[in-house]
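Hi C.,

You asked whether I'd gotten around to modeling the 338-residue construct. I have! Everything is below, sequence then structure, no commentary in between.
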Amino acid sequence: MPENAFKVVSTFAGCGGSSLGYKMAGGEVALAIEWEANACDTYRLNHPDTPVFQRDITTVTSAEILDVIGMKPGELDILDGSPPCQGFSTAGKRRISDPRNHLFKEYVRLLKELQPKVLVMENVAGLVRGQMKPVFVEILTALKESGYQVRARLMDAQYYGVPQRRKRVIFIGVRQDLDISPSHPLPETRPILLKEALADLKPPLKVLYPKGTAARLAECLKPGEDGSRLRTRLGGKVRDYSLKRLSWYKVAPTICKSVRPGQCGLLHPEESRYMATEELKRIASFPDNYQFTGSLEEQWARIGNSVPPLLMNAIAGHIRDHILTHVPELRSYKKRNA
């Protein structure tokens, strides 16, 4: 880690996908905040040098954060955050009244008090669709009223080295007094097919298999097909069709938050099983040596909830080169790291 690495505080840090991306781009994550126990265990295992607040974010104060990172308001480079997205996601039951929809306000609270140079907030594509659009406008307005120029863009991870179709709304803001316009990185890579992503990967040691109705449906699914297409033929409940069989010759679909052997999950292209942790890591752009703790279901949840490291690497690298290097005290960043 270079001595002059840009500093990041990560809220709703999960298992550390976004933190890994910042580190890839030359940043230092000075503090992570996350409440879920398994996510914290995974984070600490892979980021042993980063202090972690395993707490409800509503109890975290800016004074505590500043004390841990050894900074004053305005000195932090980036405040990162991925507030829970289940209330916005089209993959589940979209409820505008879901209390999780309002956790972004805790991020805004800390933003106002910490006044970092740059803000980065990530959320699901469903935030800009249908009944959730007013929430998107509310978030954008709150960020701007905190003293930032802000832009939001829908970014697809498959164009940033991630072998997964994963669209996310990325907010990037720059503190108004810095007089620098926020921007997003342009697409960098072609989509990577599943066969390329899993090349040379050893067979997994532990796997989950579909059960009951899911097992019956799985037998009928062809590579690249999802269970919804079988609804009229086989009958059953809608939840029984949250199955997708991957294709070797396509980009993997979005990894959902959960796998339930009797209901949902991503199936191997050829075998009668769900994708294993080792395979999901490749699809989400985690390195093979990234360690996940707990049950296979918990590991799936951590990966499904994470920000792909290579997507955040692209975002962080863009911020480093096109925003932070133009901040007066950081203009020599590139020169010192050439």
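If it helps when you're writing up: The chain has two domains: 7-191+307-331, 194-305.

Thanks,
B.
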